[in-house]
Each structure stands twice: as C-alpha cells, then as structure tokens.
Amino acid sequence: MSVKSCQQLHPLDSLATEAKVITLLDKMTLDEKIGQLSQLSGDGGQVSKELRKAIKQGQVGSIINEVDLDTINELQRIAIKESRLGIPLLIGRDVIHGFNTIFPIPLAQAASWSPEIVEQCAQISAIEASNSGINWTFAPMIDIARDPRWGRIAESLGEDPYLCKTLAKSMVKGFQGEYLSNTNSIAACAKHFAGYGASEGGKDYNTTNIAENELRNVYLPPFKAIADTGVATFMASFSDLNGVPATGNDWLLSDVLRDEWRYSGPVISDWEAVPQLVTHGFAFDKSDAANKAFTAGVDIEMASNCYLSYLTSLVSNNTIAIKKIDDSVKRVLTLKFKLGLFESATTLPNNQNNAMNLQHLSIAKNAATKSCVLLKNDNQILPLSKLAITNLAVIGPLADDGYEQMGTWAFDGKAHQSHTCLNALHAYAKDSFKIHHAVGLETSRSNHNDGFYEAIAIAKNADVALMVLGEEAILSGEAHCRANIDLPGAQEDLIDEIHKTGTPIVLVIMAGRPLTLEKIIAKVDAILFVWHPGTMAGPAIADLVFGAESPSGKLPVTFPRSVGQIPLYYAQKNSGRPPSEDKYLALNSIPVRAPQTSFGMAATYLDIHFSPLFAFGYGLSYSQFGYTNIKVMNKLITIGSFVEISVTVSNIGNFTAEEVVQLYIRDLVGSVTRPIKELKGFQRIKLAKGKSTEVKFKLHTDELAFYNRHMECKAEAGHFNVWIGGDSNATLQAEFEVTDEK
Length: 742
Ligand code: GLC
Fold this sequence. Notes:
Blueprint lengths: L10 H17 L2 H7 L1 E4 L7 H8 L5 E3 L4 H14 L7 E4 L12 H6 L3 H16 L5 E2 L23 H16 L12 E5 L18 H8 L1 H8 L4 E4 L3 E2 L2 E2 L4 H11 L6 E2 L7 H5 L5 H11 L4 E2 L3 H11 L5 H17 L19 H14 L1 E5 L13 E5 L25 H9 L4 E5 L13 H9 L3 E7 L20 H10 L4 E6 L15 E4 L7 H9 L35 H7 L37 E8 L3 E3 L3 E10 L5 E11 L10 E10 L4 E9 L5 E2 L5 E2 L3 E8 L7 E7 L3
Helix pairs in contact: 1-14, 2-13, 2-14, 6-7, 6-15, 7-9, 12-13, 15-19, 16-19
The site of alpha-D-glucopyranose has 6 residues, from loops.
C-alpha cells in the first residue's frame, strides 16, 4: 500500500514561504533567533510571569506539555500580539497513541499489521489534539526494539525494519494529513534518532554500540523512509551511539540526515538531553554542550536552557557561525509557515467536545480488536458461547481498571472514560449468564495472596475462569525496564490456584512488552495477548472472547522462552554453526565428563531450546488458513525490476476471519552476511469459511538492497528463497534469482 507523502505545503507555496521566512529572518535580532531554538515547558494550565516575559521578549519558539486550550490560546496571543515580531508558537505534546480517545499502544497497533488502522488512530489523535491547540506531536517512535526488557518497546512498532517503516509512514500520514496547514494536521516527529532500541541490557538511556552496517540495515531504514515521505521533524536520541551521544553526533545529524538524506526539517533534542552531554562526559560544561549539540545539528533544545544561556556568546566569539543559527531558525520558521500558524494560531473551542465521539470510539475498538493476538486456544475453548455458560468467573487486577488498560504515554486519557473488560462483559451477558468478579490481587505487582480465596471460590463455581492479568501501565514505557519479564507479583501463583480448581482458564494478558509465559502456559486453556488496548479495551476483548470477531493480530516482536535468550529475533544471521534440532538434542543429553569438543557445537544454549516461545508474525485465529500453490512468475530477474510471487490462501476452518499473509525472503549469499529471513511484504485479507483467494506480491529489487561493507546500499545478484505464510516460521517456499546482466 503506497502511502502518499505528506506534501506539507502546496507546491506553489514553497517559494512563497521561503521568501516570507527570509523576510522575517532579516528582521530578527540574534536573541530573537536563539529564542526560536528554545522549547520551554508549559505551566500546566496557567501562564507564569516568567513564561509570559520570555515569550514577550521573543525568547521562546515552542512550548511543551501545555494542553489547556484557553492557556494555549493565551500563549499564542502573547507571542503574536505582545512580542516584537509576533511569531506564533509551536505547541508540542507526546500524542503517542491518542489524546482524549486512547488507542492501543504502538506495539499493539503494530500487532494489527494494518497501515490503515495505524493511520486512522494517528488521524483521530491529531483531530483531538489540534482541537486543544496542539500542533506538534513527538511521534512516531520508530526505534527498532529487540529487547523486551526495555520498557520503551511498548512505544515501538516492533523488531522489524520493514513492518516498522510501513506502519510509520501511515502514522505520519495520519498525524500530518496531506498538508500540514490542514485544520486538524499536526507536525509529526521521527524519534529517537537513532539506535535507541539497542540500549545495552535493555536498560533505558543506556549505551548503544551498533556497527555502521547494522545501523544502516536495521535501525536507520524506518527513519529514512519517513524522512523521504515528509515527516516534519526529527528528535535526537538520549543515547550514546558508538561513543558519541546522538545529541552531539554530527555524523548522524549532519552527515547522514542532512548531507546524505537531504532532510530539511528541524531536529529537536530530547528532554534536557543537551546538558546531559556533560553527564555523558562528552561536554565540559553547558556552554560546551550547547556548542556540541548545536554544531552537530540539534536545532531546538527541549526543556533546558543551554541554548538560551550560551549560544549568543558562542556566536559572539565566532565559535558558532551566524549562518548556522540562521539555517536552524529558517527550519523552525518554515515549519510554522507550513502549519499555517502565521495565518491562524488560535484554536476555536467549539470542537473540543467532539472528542471521543462514536466514530472515534468505534475506530478505537476496531484497532484494539485487530491488535489482540491469540497465542493459545486448546480444544477451541474460544470463542465462548453465552448459551453454554451459566457462571463466568472474571478474575484479576486488570479486569476492571480503566487506567491500566490505557498503557504508557496516555497522558491525556481519562480512566473514567475507559470501557473496561468487566463493564463490557456485563453488557454482553445481560441476563444470559452470571458474572462473578474477584481481583485476586490488588495490583499486578501484589505479592500477598489474601485475595486468592475469593477468586478460587468463584472459579470453583464457574464454567470458565476468565483471568485478566499482566502488567500495570507503569511497568513499561520510558525508564521502566524489567530484568525479569514473567508475569509480575504473585500472578503466576494465582493462575496455579485457579488451575487447581479444574475450571478451564481463558487468560487475557495486558502488557507493554512480550512476557515469558513458559511457566504458566500449560495451566491455561487459552491466551489472548491484548497489550494495553486503550479506551475500548473491554468491548474489543468481549467481542473476541465471545466470537463476534475472530482474533487476527500477529506478533510484531518475538516472545522468548526465557529472558536469558535475549536478544532473540527472527531475522537473525545464520552464524557458522546455526542451531538445529539434532544439535539441541545432543546438547540436552551431554553425559558426565563428555569430551570438551563434543555434542551440538552450535550458536545456542545447553539449557533451553533455541526457538522462541512465540515467533515474530505468529497469531492464531478461530479459523485455520491453508497456504498452497506458491508461484514465482519470473524466476530470473534483473536488478531494477520486479519479482512477482503469488500464493493461494484458503480458509479451511469454520469461521470467517482475517489473516495477515506474510512474505519473507532470504538472500542466500551476500557481500555481507544477510539474515536467515526478512519480511518483505504482508497483506491483511478477510476470507469467509471455505473460501480461497490468490494473494499476489510484487517485490522490486530495491527492497532487496542492503548496505554492503563499503556502506553502499545495493541489491546484489544471487539466489533467493521466498516463503509465504501466517508467521515467520512459514515453510511454503519458492526460489528466484537476481542477475545483474542486462
Ligand atoms: C521524553 C522522551 C521523549 C518525549 C520527550 C517529551 O524523555 O524520551 O520520547 O517525546 O521526553 O516528553
């Protein structure tokens, strides 16, 4: 699905805008220019004397974290009416997965494998945010995340560059619309540039050491993709990238972003990341930090005041050239013109109550429904039938918690506006069956079991125990990393106790990351992994549990068996001694005093199987899908052309359902080693039971290109395997060859 790039500006307006920017720039003092490069934090619904004064003096270019419409309009009024040049403000906010209406967390949206859904969620987020005066969001977060210990995996679009870049383009399109000047468009922000997801040990803000080849082949592609399709801004990462913090990394922010990619939008630092260059041990003091960040390519400083404090003197003593200041200010002013702020920066209050209307809630429910992943369904216990149930036990601390279900980065959602699982089940049951509810544990981290007794009692008298467990929202997101990714607290014990009652268990898991579930998986009959589904969690889960719709989500990230397996992702390199079943078996039965160089010499562990618990792309349905008749139309293609591959998909089950058909390739030999599988296409299809359809993919050799050892991005001649199936373990295989002979 090609996502039209966001023009940002009507083409004819580009020249006019450039002229307006130059005209305005020529009037500005150095202090006023530096003011545009400063983002200050709002005062939470009021305008402090200091902020009012700073705006009047032209010392502020943008505000972060003000969401009160009247206050924002007052801030804009001060900037426009009381400052010397009347330059309006950018108003930034982390509208990550919703504003009033909270959509599933980004990792959940990625599990929908639906660019359309991702675009819809972003578009509604932009409508609701812009109706509150916000004109800039710090999203999409497109850090490739392959370590579920890292709390920010919740904000990511998963482990795979192709899925991430495809969905990121749609998210930007949703936020920015066709033109930034459209009423409900807001500027998007590609973050965190770059490689933040590789933080060592999955610890947030930690060091990242990424070989340039890996950086360019894995971590940069999503950023390049949305730089090319018009994302309005970038945000530099907190993290130390190969010894040079991203915030001060001129190779990244200038050589790559500006010179190679020709990107022209403003770059903002992360929160107080400029002075943190001193903490990194990369800058001597805040003046040095200001110099290094600005010189590297950070245009706007977020929340701290190194630029305000030191840029003037750095220019005066010729450390920084005024031309560089002018270039940054031009980028900021150009964005403000593109957003139409000089024409109208005031937001009328009449649309605010349009938030959370039925259409928004309907889209939020659909997004939640399509992002839930069915991981287990023994004996087809799901979907439940309301006719077959007299008593349903609903157990767990997350069954009726409108706050936790919204997940991380849901700043502006309101818990009381959430529709919880318990609410929705009551609405669904009406009088057809009885619902008995017990939390079992007060919170997801509780370790005391005094609530178990009530939970056990209702389970004993129930036909099914529906357990809603997982992680509170605060256990993922920024700075919230976990060394142990089991179900927190005493939840596993609670499952044990309910399992002992003999009542079948349907386990619904809310979480911001993959969890290690091997210890409980045998004790439950079904697992529906719903991530943090947002405002409409309840109706979505009720629809899925009772079969109004079949689950169709697919994992955007690998689920390890053990935290010790991390990093574990599907697109691994083969190594010279890849793991295999026979090697695993040999390793698993090593006799005492076996000779040193014996048994299963492979890239794996002695004490656990090398496979994940659930693979990237995995997700069950209430139906079953058969894949047959894979065909490559043109088995020999030249570089610069397309290979066309088709497959027949059949719904061989008893349920009309959607399936995400996935296409993977392997470049068998490259000038640098290539992954054993790479996602290069997917299509979400709906099939009635008993029906079949042909699904076609058209793959240009550009999609086969990768950075070689000379850092040239090229497709290479050679042989390729191609697989199509319902997850990354797809086995239906064909081959094709690429030649560079014309
Ligand atoms: C935070 C995050 C960043 C966010 C910014 C503003 O520290 O790293 O993603 O956009 O600050 O809240």
